[in-house]
Amino acid sequence: MKQIIIGITLLTKILAYEGGQCKKVDYEFNVKKFDALRVYIDFGIGRLNLSPGKSRYFITGFIDYNNSLSAPSVSLTSNNNIAKLKIDVEADMKFGNNDGNFSLDDLNINKDDNNYKINFQLPTHIATDINLEFGLGAANLDFTGLRISQLKMDCGLSDVRMKVTKPNRIDCDKVEISTGISDYNGTGLGNLNSSKYIIDVGLGTADVDLTGGSSRDMDLNISVGLGSLELTLPDHVNIKLMVESGLISSVDVRGLLSKGDGHYESKDWHDRWSIIEGKISVGLGSVDVNIVGD
User: Fold this and answer.
1) From CA 127, how far away is CA 147, in angstroms rounded?
2) CB neighbours of 46 closer than 8 A, spacing ≥ 6?
3) So what's the pLDDT on residue 294?
4) Between 199 and 204, the higher pLDDT residue
5) What is the DSSP string of 9-27?
6) How far, in whole angstroms, is CA 230 from its chain's centroid?
7) Are the beta carbons of 208 and 199 closer than 8 angstroms?
8) How far apart are CA 272 and CA 114, in angstroms?
9) Chain centroid offset of residue 102 CA
10) CA 277 to chain centre
11) DSSP 8-state symbol, 72
């Protein structure tokens, strides 16, 4: 199966503005003739909703924004029968006082400000790589029913809610999530059906639930700086964890048997169960590990 990279690029520089009217632009693309889809989403400030669509092969969506800001540029291109959706939202406004000096007071940046409202529904019958990069804002992501072959996400300063309630119908090559300074909550990530998860928790908080219907072996590589991580692992799997922590970091592992020196294993081991092997590095932050049912 050919790999798809979904990427959406939304570059947003929001500066102070006055007045303006709200404008809405609708989009629809047919990707049935393509083997794969690449979508890039990269926005500086705004609110994103991303979900599965009702159509197997159509991309639909809309963007609401104040017309004092730059109009979004949305295009679908193709190369080697792979479609590439690019959403570029860039707002360049004049700022500064009469002498041209810049002040932070000139910036009208608010986490709850809907400078851009971005709402897209993705097709459910095409393999998809997803590449997301957020600035300041919020994102609600529902990947249930999508055929995701790769996921890479940088949450930046945004509050992110993500869920996957049903198993992915294809293998996902890799999942990379960087939480930055955000508040990240992801449930059912085991349903992505990936063998490799890379999670980087910076200064923010992350609630990562790796339960789901996948039966694949899983490799975890998790790093926590000054932030906090709540990690939920599935039951009925064999688990091996290696936790490296500093003197003032906080680590609490429940539901696993401590083997000493930061090594933890499942209390019971079954040859027919899949295996989760993980390495967790903790700087000055905190990590809580729980097993479903314990």
Assistant:
1) 5
2) 10, 12, 89, 114, 115, 116, 117, 118, 137
3) 57
4) 199
5) -------------EEEEEE
6) 16
7) yes
8) 50
9) 33
10) 22
11) P
